[in-house]
Amino acid sequence: MPGDVISRIKVSLDTFHAFRDDRPKEEKWELIDGTPTMMPPRTIMHQRISANLAHTLNDRLRVAKPEWLAQLSVSVLPVGEQKYNPTPDVTVIDAAIAIGQIYAERFYFVAEVLSESDKPAVLAAKLAYYQAHDPCVGVMFVRQDRIEAELHIRAKVWTAQLLLDPQARIVIPVIGDIARLADLYRRTPLWRPDFGA
Length: 197
Known about the structure:
Elements: H1 3-6, H2 13-21, E1 28-32, E2 35-39, H3 44-64, E3 68-72, E4 90-94, E5 109-114, H4 120-131, E6 138-143, E7 149-154, E8 158-163, E9 169-172, E10 176-180
Parallel strand pairs: 5-6
Antiparallel strand pairs: 1-2, 3-4, 4-5, 6-7, 7-8, 9-10
């Protein structure tokens, strides 16, 4: 089925997987609310921000939650899910995995590095999906065109904060203080010497 046709209809999870597996490898597809959605290609900037975040998360997790691990580009698919199969840029999952495991059934924190072409409706659907899963304590959307992140954290209720100051601390419940916002932009064109060490 052509991509421009399938992206306008609702499909089952099995149909989505068959379609996605038949597409060229350079295409990145996610199932969002039953609709196959092609995601923009990851730029080098996008990948570097993701890698910086995964690195800082794993440094903190080694101390705070060694049973968790931050992983790049892992599809999340809780048992029984039929309408969603996203692949966040960074996902905190259980460190213990099975040989041959493809999907993470449980996730504790997810981050998406945004592109200009990301549609607000898709981001809103993803946010609602991530927040609906009780093990998840945080969701972050990070800009790649400027130093900015939107951090959603679960305490008793979900709260959101917009981080604009490069020195702002990224604090995630249970995990703790992982880094400054600026640290996500190390070795990118947005990094400045005045950010310090």
